[in-house]
Design brief:
2 domains; CBS domain Like; alpha/beta; Rossmann fold; globular; binds magnesium ion; binds adenosine-5'-diphosphate
Length: 363
């Protein structure tokens, strides 16, 4: 499998003004939307058509986990299905690695799905009479890869998701979380560049869910994959995503990092979502560190060069873990080979106090 690519700005998926209108008169409805700017309600009333996705544009860059968040019915599944042409748009374009997927032949489309884009659904739909290994190898079987080779690849993918000991079992012997792992292994076995996940963890218990969220993020990053991850849970989006797009009534109303969205919600709707989110997510090494001179003033005998190091973007989980692991009471924050600050347990606690007391106005 490939490792992370240096060019992180390369756009892998580019959606341009995508629309999906469902219904018999969708073409006429689309015309009126363009001509008269009809809204979702009017389209339903005048044409008996449902607007699934409305003028959505987004770019997924190489190496990033892009989350799409919205309530049930906001158009998330419709949007993600447009990305690999499981459905075709009523208007607008999807470019995958610069190629307009509307122009692909059936063979090219199959190739693209096999090589560039893998998908994991909310209910993984494992084949009940096949073993875990056969299920994980299924995508490769469809591609016509020999049994020996596909089993070897599927086995490696199952190992990656922690199911090495379960290859010969059947789906009904597995818990829900493990079945989702098989689904992920099946997607990973084809070694796609981009993984599409439609609410894969929504049906799981909170504890398992959190564990899978962390594992998924780590796995995606360590394999150098890119992902589009759908969820109706903003906490999950923040935990997993590098960037988040928030959908409402088929439209994307805000795209940004968790920090950008929490600190600067685009409208009341987003603000309401954000109100329930803990500000602890916003703690980063750069926001709680002391300057080097400040640190040296209070700890004149401390040797900064021998401190454990981290990056300015390290989050609270990482900062706590490093603090617990280190026998010194400080962590050096390094940017471009330069120590730009020092995080102390005290500074970290001050940060926690500040952000939990703070609200949007203060931030
Ligand atoms: P989400 O995944 O965010 O819950 P969906 O993308 O499934 O939302 O649905 C968005 C809207 O499109 C909803 O109003 C839904 O009823 C409608 N919709 C989705 N699929 C179809 C379809 N095949 N035919 C008609 N309407 C659909
Ligand atoms: Mg859905």
């Amino acid at each position: 499998m490939k490792t992370a690519n240096a060019d992180t700005n390369e756009v892998l998926i580019d959606c341009q003004s995508l629309w999906k209108v469902f219904g018999d008169k969708s073409a006429a409805a689309m015309k009126s939307i363009n001509a008269r700017g009809l809204g979702k309600k009017q389209v339903l009333k005048e044409y008996n058509c449902v607007v699934g996705v409305a003028n959505a544009s987004l770019q997924v860059r190489r190496g990033e986990i892009f989350c799409i968040m919205g309530l049930s019915g906001s158009g998330k599944s419709t949007l993600i299905r447009l990305l690999n042409k499981l459905i075709t748009p009523s208007s607008g374009k999807v470019l995958v690695k610069g190629r307009d997927i509307a122009a692909l032949s059936p063979v090219e489309l199959r190739q693209m799905r096999a090589m560039n884009i893998g998908m994991v659904f909310q209910s993984v739909a494992l084949l009940p009479h096949r073993t875990v290994l056969e299920n994980a190898a299924f995508g490769l079987e469809v591609q016509g890869i020999s049994k020996l080779e596909r089993n070897k690849t599927a086995k490696a993918a199952l190992e990656t998701v922690g199911l090495a000991d379960w290859v010969d079992r059947y789906p009904n012997e597995l818990s829900g979380g493990m079945q989702q792992r098989v689904g992920l292994a099946r997607a990973l076995a084809s070694d796609p560049e981009i993984i599409l996940m439609d609410e894969p963890f929504s049906a799981l218990d909170p504890l398992i869910r959190r564990q899978l969220q962390d594992e998924f993020r780590q796995l995606t990053k360590s394999l150098g994959k890119s992902a589009v991850f759908i969820t109706h849970d903003l906490d999950e989006a923040i935990r997993i995503g590098d960037r988040i797009a928030i959908m409402k009534d088929g439209a994307i109303i805000q795209t940004g990092t968790a920090e950008e969205i929490i600190l600067n919600p685009a409208d009341d709707y987003v603000a309401e979502f954000v109100a329930g989110i803990s500000r602890l997510h916003l703690i980063k090494a750069h926001s709680v560190m002391h300057s080097v001179t400040e640190f040296q003033r209070s700890e004149p005998n401390s040797d900064i060069s021998s401190l454990v190091r981290t990056t300015p973007d390290a989050d609270i989980d990482e900062l706590i873990t490093l603090t617990m692991q280190s026998d010194r009471d400080a962590i050096a924050v390094v940017d471009n080979d330069q120590v730009v600050g020092v995080v102390t347990p005290r500074g970290l606690l001050m940060g926690v106090k500040g952000t939990s007391n703070n609200d949007r106005a203060a931030a």
